[in-house]
Automatic annotation (TrEMBL):
Residues 470-724 form the Alpha-N-acetylglucosaminidase C-terminal domain. Coiled coil: none annotated. PANTHER family: ALPHA-N-ACETYLGLUCOSAMINIDASE (PTHR12872:SF1). Residues 43-123 form the Alpha-N-acetylglucosaminidase N-terminal domain. Residues 138-462 form the Alpha-N-acetylglucosaminidase tim-barrel domain. Keywords: Hydrolase, Signal. Residues 1-25 form the signal peptide. GO terms for molecular function: hydrolase activity. This is Alpha-N-acetylglucosaminidase. It comes from the Bacteria. The lineage of its organism: Bacteria, Pseudomonadati, Pseudomonadota, Gammaproteobacteria, Lysobacterales. One of its GO terms (biological process) is carbohydrate metabolic process. It holds the Pfam family NAGLU. The keyword Signal applies.
Length: 739
């Protein structure tokens, strides 16, 4: 049966048929490999080898089948005591195997830990399993994911990430990496030299906001070697996505130009676009101007030469802009038509992808869209009102139901999972329905594996999930075993009814602790939507999972994460007590409580150091691989450090805060220690506390080059047990004082 993986295997003729979405618009249909004359299953087999090893992959017969009118599907069955997966593209075959891993083999592969304790002989399904995609668009990644998740990534990282996204049923992936090379190549045609362009293009970690037309430039020019390496990576990413029948989604051209464009190109109408969080936005070339069509044609020519073809292009004119502004007198309806016309001249029938976010897309942009060639990926599906009418608001433009469960890479557990389970189906069943799939868009993606699994499964279900059963199955696949471990099930049931049962608000993005906030007695984020001790109860259960199931990276990740969260939410309890002691001039109480705070920060740093995914050292080490000289490293180091601390402007400092070893034990600890010392001095002298410039403090740290551990250390199970006992003792002492 090895022959089924050969280059001439399973060549079938496949049809793409789009069905009407509504009387007003046709759906944004996206061709994958199944749109062409045939496809080879070899890329899917190779992905399985990478994911589970050759011995197991060779036990799977992968079969290409024609795509029916309704869209993608996969079928899991057995024949002659072999596992058979049928699917409508290589990526769909991988998605079918992902479903098999979850619901037959009870194994789990995510971007945040794995459990692959699979028998030597693959178990077979008791009966055939068929899952049909309920929408054509299964989009992944936020515009800013590249910055907040892994701006200095290797091909090995992205090869695995693409495999895991396919395993979860994704068929469209945003590719921002390397796009600076397109601008560098294209604008040399319009009077710019490379030396000017590398001063305009930001460093890698901050580039997503440049592509979103929010900012430009970095303190130091980006190195040519960085540009070239990122372009090479992007080409590999795009090629692999196409091999798997997935669509690379590239940024399109909608008018961002370097400074001085009108001086170099006579008659060009260029307008300023104001500021964004303290940054000067790039200039905007009027899409109604003849120069726009010329630049767009050169942009798409250079992009296609570098990265190949796509049929989807992401563009968000005036992202987070002001509705009702004059925008330099530009007619936005006509500008929208000009942007889309330029895209379609370069790529006939291409889909324009826009982000639904705050005021975006602005009403005149919606008005000007050719809605048969557009898709809005809704970033607010989970946070808006249940009766929101996207069909009216976006005038029947096809859209994908989206989630942004995470802002800035915050290391918080939880999501609006119960909201997804209700609202997705409510919106899908509306008589006038323009929803055509899902959009997975946390601002950083290598986290929250339960949320990733549940959300992507929405696209393959026919009805809402039974949440009790889903979390029972999740606990089983996450940690393995012949049957679900009762303590694992109990732990996840607690999380199901607390951290994963957040309301339809923005709160899920801010369920973080206070250790990583800029020091203040009044530091706070949005309130928790569950009792803090629920996390401790879940941790107590997870600690009791059977010893045989504790060896996977999935278990170690979750135990680290849950212990981290238990300490993080306790900070919300402690800080008001510190404030009360200070206001009461209670020196003894203040000393005791601040010592407890700093102790817990040290304990938290040690917990985080047991798992590479929660460590600053690897983040910086990966960035350093892009530097060829000390000067290049100084610029890259500042880029990587500043994004997750000061960001680059006081208005957005600490937006990308995260609980990582090194950040907690060094940067955040030093800030709180300095602050508490200033408060203690005020108590001792009766004066006022010293005012500290935290941005300047962060700027100094971001310029530093202190090295941090890159290898994890410590026994997380032992450490988590000790911390739980400490937290329990502390909580009991507080309760006794209340009594």
């Amino acid at each position: 049966m090895r022959g089924v993986f050969g280059p001439v295997s399973c060549l079938v003729t496949l049809l793409w048929l789009a069905s009407p979405l509504s009387a007003q618009a046709q759906p944004a249909v996206v061709p994958t490999a199944a749109a062409y004359a045939s496809f080879d299953t070899t890329p899917a087999h190779d992905a399985l080898v990478r994911l589970i090893g050759e011995a197991h992959a060779n036990q799977v017969d992968l079969r290409a089948v024609a795509r029916p009118r309704q869209g993608d599907f996969f079928r899991i069955s057995s024949q002659d005591r072999r596992l058979v997966i049928e699917g409508t593209s290589p990526a769909t075959l991988i998605a079918g195997f992902g479903w098999y891993l979850a619901y037959v083999a009870h194994a789990n592969i995510t971007l945040a830990g794995e459990q692959r304790d699979i028998p030597d002989t693959l178990p077979l399904p008791a009966k055939p399993i068929v899952q049909e995609a309920n929408g054509q668009n299964r989009f992944a990644l936020n515009d800013v994911d590249e910055g907040y998740t892994e701006p200095y990534a290797s091909w090995e990282y992205w090869e695995h990430k693409i495999d895991v996204l396919a395993l979860h049923g994704i068929n469209q992936v945003l590719v921002y990496q390397g796009q600076e090379k397109v601008y560098e190549e294209a604008f040399q045609t319009f009077g710019y030299g490379r030396d000017e362009l590398v001063r305009w293009i930001p460093q890698a970690a901050h580039q997503p906001w440049w592509l979103l037309q929010n900012l430009c430039c970095s303190p130091e020019p980006i190195a040519q070697g960085v540009i070239d390496r990122r372009a090479e990576l992007a080409r590999k990413m795009a090629d692999r996505l196409r091999q798997l029948g997935m669509m690379p989604v590239f940024p399109g051209f909608y008018g961002t130009v370097p400074p001085g464009f009108a001086k170099r190109n006579k008659g060009a109408h260029v307008v300023p676009t104001g500021e964004w969080d303290g940054y000067q936005r790039p200039d905007w070339l009027d899409p109604n101007d003849p120069w726009f069509a010329r630049v767009a044609a050169e942009f798409y020519r250079a992009q296609t030469a570098l990265f190949g073809e796509s049929r989807m292009y992401k563009m968000d004119p005036l992202h987070e802009g002001i509705e009702g502004g004059d925008h330099g007198g530009i007619d936005l309806v006509a500008a929208t038509k000009g942007i889309q016309a330029a895209l379609n001249r370069a790529h006939p029938d291409a889909i324009w992808v826009l982000l639904g976010w705050e005021t975006n897309p602005l009403p005149p942009i919606v008005e000007g869209l050719d809605k048969s060639h557009a898709l809005i990926v809704d970033g607010e599906s989970e946070a808006t009102l249940a009766d929101t009418d996207r069909e009216t608001e976006w005038k029947d433009t096809p859209y994908a139901f989206g989630t942004i469960w995470n802002f800035g890479g915050h290391t918080n557990i939880g999501a609006n999972l119960s909201v997804w389970n209700e609202r997705f189906w409510q919106w899908k069943k509306k008589p006038r329905n323009a929803m055509t799939g899902v959009a997975l868009m946390p601002e950083a993606s290598d986290n929250n594996p339960a949320a990733l699994a549940f959300f992507t499964e929405l696209a393959w279900r026919k009805e809402p999930a039974n949440l009790d059963e889903w979390f029972r199955q999740w606990a089983w696949r996450r940690y393995g075993g012949a049957r679900p471990d009762p303590h694992a099930v109990a732990a996840w049931h607690i999380l199901q009814t607390s951290a994963y049962d957040l309301p339809a608000t923005w709160d899920s993005k801010y369920q973080t602790g206070y250790f990583e906030l800029a020091p203040s007695l009044y530091a706070h984020t949005l309130p928790l939507d569950y009792a803090p001790d629920r996390i401790e109860h879940a941790l107590a259960e997870l600690l009791q999972v059977a010893p045989a199931l504790r060896n996977s990276s999935a278990y170690r990740h979750d135990l680290t994460d849950l212990t981290r969260q238990a300490l993080a939410v306790r900070s919300r309890v402690l800080l008001p007590e510190i404030n009360a002691a200070f206001e009461a001039r209670d020196k003894a109480g203040f000393d005791r409580l601040t010592a407890q705070w700093l102790h817990w920060m040290q304990r938290l740093d040690a917990v985080l150091g047991t798992n590479r995914q929660f460590m600053l050292g690897p983040w910086l080490a990966r960035a350093k691989t892009y530097a060829k000289t000390p000067d290049e490293w100084a610029a890259i180091n500042y880029d990587a450090r500043s994004l997750i601390t000061i960001w680059g402007r006081p208005d957005v400092a600490d937006y990308a805060r995260r609980e990582w070893q090194g950040l907690v034990g060094d940067y955040y600890y030093a800030r709180w220690k300095l602050y508490f010392d200033s408060l203690k001095k005020a108590l001792d002298t009766g004066g006022k506390a010293e005012r500290i410039d935290w941005y300047a403090f962060g700027e100094t740290w971001a310029r530093g080059q202190k090295a941090y551990p890159t290898e994890p250390s410590g026994d997380i199970h032992a450490m988590a047990g000790q911390i739980l006992r400490e937290l329990t003792k502390d909580r009991d002492a507080r309760l006794s004082q209340v009594r």
